[in-house]
Amino acid sequence: MRRAHTVDQVRTAEADLMARLPEGTLMQRAATGLAVAISNFLGHTYGARVVLLIGSGDNGGDALYAGEKLARRGAQVTAVLLSEHYHQAALAALLAAGGRVAGSGAATDAAGLASGVAGEIARADVVVDGIVGIGGRPGLRAEAAAAVRVAGEHRVPIVAVDVPSGVDVDSGETPEEHVSAALTVTFGTHKICHLVDPAATACGPVHLVDIGLDLPHAAIESIQSADVRALYPVPRGESDKYSRGVLGLMAGSAQYPGAAVIATSGALAGPIGMVRYVGPDSVAEAVRAAHPEIVAGEGRVQAWAVGSGLGDDLDLAKVRELLDEEEPVLLDADGIKALDDSGDHDSVLITPHAGELARLLEVDRAVVEAQRLKHARLTAERFDVTVLLKGSTTVIAAPSGEVRVNTNATAWLATAGAGDVLAGLCGSLLAAGLNPLDAASVGAYLHAAAANLASAGGPLTAMQVAAKLPDATRGLLAEPDPAGE
Ligand SMILES: NC(=O)C1=CN([C@@H]2O[C@H](COP(=O)(O)OP(=O)(O)OC[C@H]3O[C@@H](n4cnc5c(N)ncnc54)[C@H](O)[C@@H]3O)[C@@H](O)[C@H]2O)[C@@H](O)CC1
Ligand SMILES: [K+]
Predict the structure, then answer these.
(1) How far apart are CA 170 and CA 120, in angstroms?
(2) Known binder of ligand: residue 334?
(3) E strand or H helix at 296
């Protein structure tokens, strides 16, 4: 798992380590890693034009010391001081290495920046965001915002130090103006904003520099290929179609027959041995035509997937009966309407998109979009259910408080029917014996991996994603375990 910690957890770990090391050691480790990452990002150092945006705290200190190291290797490094306060020793080190300070005069230009600063930024090969790190509040002050805007206008890439300044580090929310980085270089561990959207998108790729922190249990985790490989229910020699798991699928309607066909594709491409389809005869015919393997009608199953494309055919009483049974149930789309906040739902997985979750919680969709982690957690707690909140980064929250995210999806996956494939696949994983948290995590990861194969940088259809699931699974199961994951 890739782990992300809260600001408090990081501060405690840093304090413990700092007490055992000579002063300044951690900042030097961070700055060294940052300088190397900037060099790699640029592809060259000698003669490169680097502008550092410097705020009042240690985040600015990291940027200044990294600037010193780049200046010693021949980069032309210019610091823009955005506050009266700054890390003085770090600035002295930069100046001693040949770096400069821009815009120290009183005059300001049209953008509200000290004169000369906008020109420096416009000509830079890279801008380094050392405005604020984990000590920052959301938002940018006027001068910082102006500097960031000039970089954007001139398409100068920004490398963020630790976090893109202005995002909310512990929630991944972006309530105010913030940096959008081409690369974020972070230290010790990932922070929540690196994994949860909308902030995760503002980070760009995230490079982690190890500074030797000893960290506690993570606040949230992001599932990696090695985790999926360890969890995937691979059939054994003695397995048969029943012991591999049977999924009952209640999906599709006269209005949306395709949803049943697509969800079945996702289910059959998972680990189970059989799908029992339960629904109107005309839809069952369509499912059988596409998938002759299915069995129509009720019978013994190990889990249910209910809801994709049911529309007005949703039989609330029937779904509530299923929720009272022992078998795990996945509720998708309209099926989610059957959930209430009384009762024990710890074997239930729901797979809403932001709109469906907003409807369940009776809030605006935009509020869920802006505060994805908060609403996923709140739902898991209030309904005692595991929640897979779909989106550019998928957030999965369990009633235990555990949270996992999946960040490997392509934006091409936002297409009709993709959610039906995911519901079928996650249902299949539940029927094969995974608990709701693991089924959701493995399902989200493989769904995204299959979409990446289907897309290869271009458009895709839901059925193509389902068709690529076996390849994605095969590739993953065959991968050697990378060290350290
Ligand atoms: N503590 C440590 O051991 C280490 C810290 N490191 C760096 O230090 C950073 C944390 O440093 P600090 O605790 O000094 O805090 P920051 O540098 O993140 O922020 C400093 C100050 O900025 C001001 N501020 C808050 N929000 C602002 C905003 N929106 N706009 C402008 N100013 C704002 C506040 O006065 C705040 O105290 C980390 O993110 C990391 O970059 C690294 O050097 C690694 C080691
Ligand atoms: K920053």
Answers:
(1) 33
(2) no
(3) strand 295-296
Residue of minimum CA distance from atom 9 in ligand 1: 59
Q: Which residue has the higher pLDDT, 45 or 342?
A: 45
Residue 103 assigned ligand-binding role: no
Ligand 1 centroid vs 210 CA: distance in angstroms?
A: 18
Say how many C-beta atoms besides its own lie within 10 A of residue 7's C-beta: 18
Nearest to 80 by CA among 151, 157, 4, 170: 151
């012991």: which residue's tokens?
Answer: 243
Tell me which residue has its CA closest to atom 15 in ligand 1: 135
Q: Which atom of ligand 1 is nearest to the CA of 26?
A: 45
1-32: per-residue pLDDT in tens?
Answer: 899 999 999 999 999 999 999 999 999 999 99
Task: Give the closest residue (by CA) to ligand 1 atom 2.
Answer: 14
Tokens (6 digits) for 327: 């078998």
Domains and CATH numbers, the chain: 2-222 (3.40.50.10260), 225-478 (3.40.1190.20)
ipTM for the whole predicted complex goes beyond 0.90: yes
Rounded to the nearest 5°, which phi and psi values hold at 231? Answer: -90, -25
Q: Is 162 annotated as a binding residue?
A: yes
C-alpha to C-alpha distance for 415 and 432, rounded to whole angstroms: 27
pTM: 0.92
Q: Are 164 and 184 in contact (CB under 8 A)?
A: yes
Q: What is the pLDDT of residues 50-61, one digit of tens each?
A: 999 999 999 999
pLDDT digits (tens, 9 = 90+) for 96-135: 999 999 986 666 787 788 888 999 999 999 999 999 999 9
- pLDDT tens column, 269-284: 999 989 999 999 999 9
Nearest bound ligand to the CA of residue 183: 2
